[in-house]
Design goal:
555 residues, mainly alpha, Glycosyltransferase, 2 domains, three-stranded mixed beta sheet, two-stranded antiparallel ribbon, globular, binds 1-deoxynojirimycin, hydrolase, 6hp_glycosidase-like_sf, EC 3.2.1.3, signal
C-alpha cells in the first residue's frame, strides 16, 4: 500500500516535470523533424534555422509555440458547431424574408407592398426607419444569393427566379428619376435608396453614393457567369424585361458600367452615407466592376466598350494605388477617406476597407489578379489588426476578451457616433465582426489555394505575436517561414482558425435565442441595437460560415 503510494507520487512528480519542461511546445518539436521542407537556397530563414541561429544555446522548451491560444472558457466547441448549423439556416431564411416575392416574404403581412425582387434593408419602420431598398445592401445581399446558387450547382429554382426578379426590378429603378438625377445622363443611378414599392425617396439624404451601380454590376455580372457555367448562358424565367444574357448586359449592366466609367473621378457619399469625398470602398468596388465589366464586354464582342472600360480601369487603378492617398507611406494600414485623415479628423481606419477587399476578390474570379489589395495583402491584415487593437479597448463589452487573445466586437470605424437611432456613441456591428471572421478564414484558404508557406515578417509579426503564436522576442528582422503543411504551419493555421471562430463566438453571444440579428450591439451591455433583422447582418454572417466550411474541408 505504502509502496504503491510512493510509486504514485513519484509518477505524478515525473509527469509534472515532463509537462513543465515541454510547455505547449509539441508542434515546434515536430517542426524540427521537418528539415526536408526547408529550402537551402532561401535567402530568408525558415522557422528551424531562424531559431537555431538565434537560440542555439536555448532548449527547445524555452521557445514555445502555443499550439492553442484559444481559451475554452468561451462557447464550447459542440455548442459552437450546433449554433453554426442552426444559425446558418436561420440567417438564410431571414435574408429571404426581406426580399419581395420570395416564398417566405409573400406570406409575411408586415412586408406588404414590397415589389417583387426588391431587397429591403430591414423590416424596421421606426427607430430607425430602414424599410427601404438600398442599392448597396441589395447588391451585396444578392451576391450572397449567387454564392448559394454556385455552391448548390444552380439547383434552386425559386432562388434563380428571385435573382432574375432582382435584375428585373433594377431595370425599373435605374430608369426612375430621383433627387440624384435621371437616366438620360445616368446621374440617377447614384441614388442610394428607394421606397419598397419602387418609388423615389424624395427627402434629404447623403447623395449620390457612387458605390451602388458598381456593386449592382458586380452582382449581375456574377449571375451571368453562373448562367454561362450552369445553364448554357440562357436565362431561366420568361416573364422578365430581358430575354437573354445579352439583354441583361445591354439593358442593365452597361448603364451601370458607363456610370462608373463616367463618375469614378467624382466625389460621393461613402457607404456609411456620411461623408462626401473619395473613399477606398467606393473606388475598390468601382475598380472590380470595370475590370469584370470589360471581360464581359469582350464576350459580347463589344470591343469599343471593352477598351473604354479598360482605359478607365487603368486610370482608376492608378488612382487607388498611387494618387488617392488610400496608401500612406507612414502607415501600416490603409485609409478609407484620405481627406478626413489628412485634415486630422479621422485615423483612416475603417471596417469598410476589409469589406472592400472581401467584396472585390474571389479565388475563382478571372480578373482577381488585376485588382489590388487582395485579402492576403499585408495592408489588409494591417488594417484589421489596427482596427482590432483600437476596438478591443474602445468598447467596454470587449474588455474581458483582451487578455485572452480572442476575437472582439468590431465597429464601423473608431470615430463613429451613430448608435442605430441617434448620435450618442458608436457600437460594434454584427456585419463588421462577421467580415473580420471571414477575412481570417479566407487568409487560411489562400495558403492552401496557393500551396503557400506561411510567412511571418516584420510587418505582420505583432499580429501573430499577440494573437496566434507565443513568441518570446518583441520584434524580428527577417522573415520566418513556416513551410506549407509542415507541422508548425499546421499548428499556426489551426490557431488562426480558432481565432477566426472566436469572432463568430462574439456574434453568437449577442444574437437572440431565435437567431435574429440587428445592426449593432451595445458597447457596454452587448444588447442588440439599431435596425432589427438587418439583411446585411445575416448575409455577412452566412458568408463567414460559408468560408469556414470551405476551409475546414481542407484539413
Ligand atoms: C443613417 C445611415 O444609414 C447611417 O449610416 C448614418 O450614420 C446615419 N444615417 C447618419 O447619416
Ligand atoms: C446604414 C449603413 O451605414 C449603410 O451602409 C446601409 O446601407 C444602411 N444602413 C442600410 O442598411
Amino acid at each position: 500500500m505504502i509502496i504503491s503510494k510512493i510509486l504514485f507520487s513519484l509518477l505524478t512528480l515525473l509527469t509534472f516535470s515532463v509537462a513543465n519542461v515541454l510547455p505547449l511546445s509539441y508542434s515546434y518539436q515536430l517542426q524540427l523533424l521537418d528539415q526536408k521542407n526547408s529550402n537551402a537556397n532561401s535567402k530568408y530563414f525558415n522557422l528551424l534555422n531562424y531559431f537555431n541561429n538565434d537560440y542555439n544555446s536555448i532548449k527547445i522548451s524555452q521557445i514555445p509555440i502555443k499550439s492553442q491560444k484559444f481559451i475554452p472558457n468561451q462557447i464550447s466547441r459542440d455548442d459552437r458547431e450546433s449554433w453554426i448549423q442552426e444559425q446558418k439556416t436561420v440567417s438564410f431564411r431571414n435574408i429571404l424574408n426581406n426580399i419581395g416575392g420570395s416564398l417566405t416574404n409573400i406570406s409575411n403581412p408586415e412586408n406588404n407592398g414590397v415589389s417583387v425582387g426588391a431587397v429591403i434593408a430591414s423590416p424596421s419602420k421606426v427607430h430607425p426607419d430602414y424599410f427601404y431598398q438600398w442599392t448597396r445592401d441589395a447588391a451585396i445581399t444578392m451576391l450572397t444569393i449567387c454564392d448559394y446558387l454556385q455552391d448548390d450547382n444552380f439547383q434552386n429554382i425559386s432562388l434563380i427566379d428571385l435573382m432574375e426578379s432582382y435584375i428585373d426590378n433594377n431595370y425599373y429603378l435605374q430608369r426612375l428619376s430621383n433627387p440624384s438625377g435621371d437616366f438620360d445622363d445616368l446621374s440617377g443611378l447614384g441614388e442610394a435608396k428607394f421606397h419598397v414599392n419602387n418609388t423615389a425617396f424624395m427627402e434629404h439624404w447623403g447623395r449620390p453614393q457612387r458605390d451602388g451601380p458598381a456593386l449592382r454590376a458586380i452582382t449581375t455580372i456574377k449571375y451571368i457567369d453562373l448562367l454561362n457555367k450552369f445553364n448554357n448562358g440562357e436565362i431561366k424565367t420568361d416573364d422578365k424585361i430581358f430575354n437573354s444574357t445579352a439583354d441583361i448586359y445591354n439593358l442593365i449592366i452597361k448603364p451601370d458600367l458607363e456610370y462608373v466609367a463616367k463618375y469614378w473621378n467624382k466625389k460621393s457619399f461613402d457607404l456609411w452615407e456620411e461623408i462626401d469625398s473619395f473613399h477606398f470602398f467606393t473606388s475598390m468596388v468601382q475598380l472590380r466592376s470595370l475590370y469584370s465589366g470589360a471581360q464581359l464586354a469582350l464576350k459580347f464582342n463589344d470591343n469599343q466598350f471593352y477598351y473604354y472600360l479598360m482605359e478607365n480601369a487603368r486610370s482608376l487603378n492608378d488612382f487607388v494605388v498611387f494618387k488617392s492617398g488610400y496608401k500612406q507611406p507612414s502607415l501600416d494600414h490603409l485609409v478609407e477617406t484620405p481627406s478626413l485623415y489628412l485634415s486630422n479628423h479621422r485615423s483612416g481606419l475603417d471596417s469598410a476597407i476589409i469589406i472592400a477587399s472581401i467584396l472585390t476578390h474571389d479565388f475563382d474570379l478571372d480578373v482577381n489578379h488585376l485588382i489590388p489589395f487582395d485579402i492576403n495583402d499585408p495592408l489588409i491584415l494591417g488594417t484589421l489588426y489596427a482596427l482590432i487593437s483600437d476596438m478591443k479597448y474602445r468598447y467596454a463589452i470587449n474588455h474581458n476578451l483582451i487578455s485572452l487573445n480572442l476575437g472582439v466586437g468590431i465597429g464601423r470605424y473608431p470615430e463613429d457616433i451613430y448608435d442605430g437611432t441617434g448620435f450618442a456613441e458608436g457600437n460594434p456591428w454584427f456585419l463588421s465582426t462577421s467580415y473580420a471572421a471571414e477575412l481570417f478564414y479566407k487568409i487560411v484558404y489562400s495558403f492552401f489555394n496557393n500551396a503557400e508557406d506561411l510567412r511571418i515578417n516584420p510587418a505582420n509579426f505583432k499580429f501573430y505575436k499577440e494573437n496566434i503564436i507565443n513568441f518570446n522576442q518583441e520584434s524580428i528582422e527577417n522573415d520566418i517561414i513556416l513551410p506549407f503543411k509542415s507541422s508548425a504551419f499546421n499548428a499556426t493555421v489551426s490557431n488562426l482558425l480558432s481565432y477566426a471562430d472566436s469572432f463568430l463566438d462574439v456574434v453568437h453571444s449577442h444574437v437572440s435565442d431565435e437567431g435574429s440579428i440587428s445592426e449593432q450591439f451595445d458597447r457596454y451591455s452587448g444588447y442588440m441595437k439599431g435596425a432589427s433583422d438587418l439583411t446585411w447582418s445575416y448575409g455577412s454572417l452566412w458568408n463567414a460560415f460559408r468560408w469556414r466550411e470551405k476551409v475546414l474541408v481542407l484539413f
